[in-house]
User: Fold these one by one.
Assistant:
Number 1:
Amino acid sequence: MSTDLLNTLVTSAIWRAEQLAEHGIDSASLAWAEVSALEEELAKALPASQPEGRIARRGAVRAALKAGDFARAQSLAESYLAEKDATRTLRASLRQLLEEDARTLADRFRHAAKAVDDVRGLARWLQEGGAFGLAA
Amino acid sequence: METLAFYSYKGGVGRSLLLANAARFLASLGKGVVALDFDFEAPGLHYKLGHAAHRESRLEGGAVPYLVATAREAMSPPPLEEHMIQVPVPPGSGGWLRLMPAGPAPDRAYWVALKQLGEQVHFDDPSGQGLMPLLDLHARIRQELKPDYLLIDARTGVTELGGLATTILADTVVCMFVANQESLDGTLMVAEALKAAPRLKGQRPIRIVPALTRTTSEPPSEGPFAEGVKRLLELGAGTASRGNKKEPKLFELPHDTVHGASDRIVAGERTASAFSPLYKSYLELFRELVPSSAQRAEEALSRLEVVASIKEELTGGRERYDFDDVLSPWNASAIDEGVSYEGEGYGQPASRYADLVCRDDAGRPLMVVEYLAGSHKEAVDFWGQRTKVRCLLLLSRNQHGHVEREIYARRPDEHELRPTDRRWDLPLPKEFDLLLDVGDRSIEKMIDALRRGHAEAAAWLVGEWRESVAAVEGFGPKSPPWRPLRARRILDGLAATEDPGLGEQILRRAAPGPWGPWHPRLRYRRKFRDEWGGGDDLDRWMAKDLFAPLFWRLSVEAVVRYSGERHYPGESPCLAGYRLLAHDLMGLRYDPDRTALAEGRAVWAQRSDERQGEDSEDWEPVEWLHRSRRERNEHLRLSDELAPVLVWEELGREARYFRGTLQEAREKIGDKGKKQAASSSGLRRRLRERLDRHQLAAGGLLGQYDTAGRIELYPAVIGAAAELVGVSQRSLKSVAFIHFAVLALAHQARDLDGQPGYGFTPAPLRPPYFRESPVHASLAQCFAQRLIERLDDPNLMAAFEKLSQHQPEPYRQWETLRKVPLEQLRVYLMRARAAATAIGLPPFEERDW
């Protein structure tokens, strides 16, 4: 698929997702998931050295976070951060995206704000090992 | 804030009940406590802790609605107060307890909220969106409510929420299991997982406290179960914090049919009824769980243990050091527990906590029991000056940990409570009627109560008598001290009883048996026998040294009542009195039952030819026995009839040659003659004439022993004679009774050969043939004197001696025979008894029936 077509699809998907979110419609997260998927496709087609490639990478991670799929966002960010041609600016912005998400979570649950990183680790432990980690 | 999670691999182990008790206990110690119900699928903590409050306030919140609301309303978690219940705690404790129930279960709204929670909150969401509300709630409780303790009821089994509550939120996990391999293996697996689970930054290692619950017996000490327990304890010990270097201990929570079944929350209560083996175990566990409160737990345990033991003792639940059902214990409904007692009188209003208040039937407080934490003086002043209680029992522990009791008492008209010598025998309800001052339960005071008509005092005195002589039987170290002088004082006190009704009660109490199997005293007798192994011996002592002297020393009216109607089927009057005379003095055997059976058998043998073919050959002797017993009940009676001697005298004036029986003679003189003869002036005149002539013979005048085997006394004549002789009527009656009893026994009792004394035949009561045998009269007086001497009763001896001064020569011969050995007297008696055989009368068994 050509990048032009992908760009067209992404633009319309973003517009759709923003409209859904603005009107509080539940399927907004699905729309953002679609945006993330399209951005990921763009990122595959465009190297990180190009400005469009960097935008696509940031867009894929941001859209995954907006879709509420933190695991995917984290996984994408980790893979983009590992790319050799990723610029310092890209890396910083990817990290910033994840930190902002953590900050949002911390703001929501301010009494346990300090434990956000731990919580995500524990959540992963729970996801992998089940209750009491017995399935790990 | 310390977080304690209560977890069990299997349900039904009493987890919520333990948590509820722990929460209340900690609150009662002045701590701030929050209890959190995370058992979402089967919530119940609000039933145990705050059900009433929950229903009244119609709470709609709880952990589930809170988490749902948190997940929904991204930036504004709802106020905690909307999801919590304030649970009442013991007044004055200074602590507080709040409960966050799972939700308004079992309402439908709760299950809707739980469904939403499942859909919206995923604890394993890697973004932390699911876990954060949980941790936020935990942190929020810590920061906003600032409790000292957060107690979490974790979900049973292997669940995400149960795992999070124990691995992430808890500092200490109480792992509860029951005594089976399945429960233990599951618990062990979870405990190992807890050890390996990650912790948040700054969290100390998790502490595991294993607790074996619902125990009914000792857990096995060998095998897979024991190995599992050992491993579980190692896991617990390995994570012990706060420098606890004690050996790991498995806490056992026994099955409690009372509190466990009712789900009663007893922790924090100061009432004795809260105490149970389960609560004791709770407190021991709390001591371990919350080391900072160990001393308070110890104090609570100590107080409850002591007060519960006192209550048990008061209500007779414990084995008492008693020989009899002396006085009834307190009825449990008469004892109030944990009363904040308002003081009376002028001055500042004041109240004081009483552990127990014992009341009378009208509800008036009689006695207060207080476990003392402060000074004795304050307590004594309050209870003495601000209340009207008659007795105060103060309990405390000395420096060695031993319980000390102090009993204060006063008379109803006194204002101050005084210390008493009583320590271990707690005042019983009846004592408040019997004694003006319950602090002084001396023999004399009890005898005084007896004089005032309290038969219970007789029961107590008899019990004390047994206790005073029990040592004689050598019951070993458990034996009470031998106190013969005390026993003697009791005997004298009982013997001095005037009222015949009370006298009868005394004899019944002093009789050692036999009783029917349904008799209430048997229970005590068996208990006594089991404990001491000498009950039979003591019964013999009692019969001989208590009953027998009382039988002769108490009023004749009391003996007549005692020998009369039976209270229990199969009950027969004790013969110890007669046996004392027959066995110990006269050298004869007195066993009317055996005699009756022998006679019955003899009759059966005579008639056996006529009864051929009948199934049973035992009925006749038994019938004979029953008839004998019925007759024995009428063995002694006080008669209103005119004494035979007076009848003949009266008749002699009118019909000199009358040849009829005594009954016919009585009919002949009629009512007019009887009245004349019995008039006090006439009676006194006739007796005075006899007195002057030393002719105050007993036979036929004061009484008689007739051929029917009955002793009959004539109180009217005895009364007049007593007045003339100058002795008490009661004593003279007893002396006459003894005299005729000797005659009766000389006739009825058997010698070593089993022969009765039919040579000692009663007078036929037919004039002019009636001549009392001088030998018989002398012997009767000799044995009567020996008996009275043995009874050591000065009143009886005085009456006997004074009477005999006015009696014919044979009656006074005891004076010359005083130094004759008893054995020689017995020889004389045997000769006199043999007289009938000597003149050719065949022995009893050979007589033709």
Note: Residues 294-314 of chain B form the longest helix (21 residues).
Number 2:
Amino acid sequence: MKVAIRTVSIASAFLWVFLIAFAASAVFSMKDFQLTFGALQSNVSAENEVVFVLPVAIVNKGFYGISDFNISTEIMDEQGLTLARGFTLVPLVGTGQAVNATHQVKFKIDETLNRSTRLLFDDAELRLAETFSLKVAETIPVQASLNVSLPWGAPLYNLTVGAFQMSWEGAGHGGGYVEGVVPVSFENHAFFSLNGTLYLRLYNDANVLVGTRQASFDVSQNSAYHEDLMVDVSMLHVTASGHCEVFVETSMFNVGPLVVPYAL
Amino acid sequence: MLYETKKDSQGGFRKFVFRAAKATIKGSVFYGAYFVLSQYMAPVFTLIPSFQQSIEAFVIAYTVLLVAGELTWGTVYQHFLNVAKALFVVGYLILSTNSGIIELNLSSIRVAVDFKLVLTFAVLLSLLGVAKAVLQAVNYMSERAEPPVL
């Protein structure tokens, strides 16, 4: 029995030394693991996707390899609705290796704005849930997570359709049409330029179309749009009250109809 | 007769001094190993002060059990203390590491470390220590039960 006890003692001592040395060196080697983030860039791709790009530099000078390095991003609006998710996986960063990765999060702007229409007209603070996970020495999973906010600028901030005004001057000279004016304005707070077409349809109180107008626009970021849209209105059908419908069509999204009543 | 009793007590005192010296050396070596390791772990201790307190509490309790085990060497209490020492390691590892998942809040970053695999190995090794202590106790009792050779 003494031989068995001695064998167990030796094996146990050897395994303890191995386990403690491994655990301590794994923790110690983490101080030589460097993670550097570049500046967050945002752009709109040719497929009308908003792309957030985060360059990441991973340097591992520790004793052990780092495996399954994963960056996960979830973008949510203020109500907690998920707008986009992105994952980047680096399978292995060996000892003494440096890896440069690019973490991308894409979302289709039209789908996102259809789900969360408030983002079209109001600025907001989007929430970014960032999670970094990796396996130290390819065996010990470590996860770090943080929440950051991202300002969102509305592309049609404060979209306003003003009161319809009609000018009776020149009435009868235009083949039964008179000229009306509808002022339309908005500010582009988004990080991308906005170009497209604005459609205006004017209806009388019997819901009969009395005039239309379309106007193209090109509004760069952080710029305002203000236009008095001239509409030729049918004198025969126009009434003292009615409503106008506004549609906005851009290469990225379509909005409408925005219904505004009028009274002359 | 008086001479034999005096000789016995002198022998017992020598044995006690030897055990005490052995216990001191073992305790010092164990603490020295902790001291050397703690130098390497200093960045971790700076980051998580509670981790250092927890490790120090473990080192103190383990050293006490180690020294007590050495002082009671050659008695059945030594085996009880060895079992207690191994069970203490199992309990400490499970409780102090929250069953293998440590969560930290570093300002706005939440860090979770899952070292269940290392913990499992450590618990298995501690259970091996319990088994060894039980074997030693059985061996001790069987040796004492054997009739003296005439």
Note: Chain A has two domains: 29-152, 157-263.
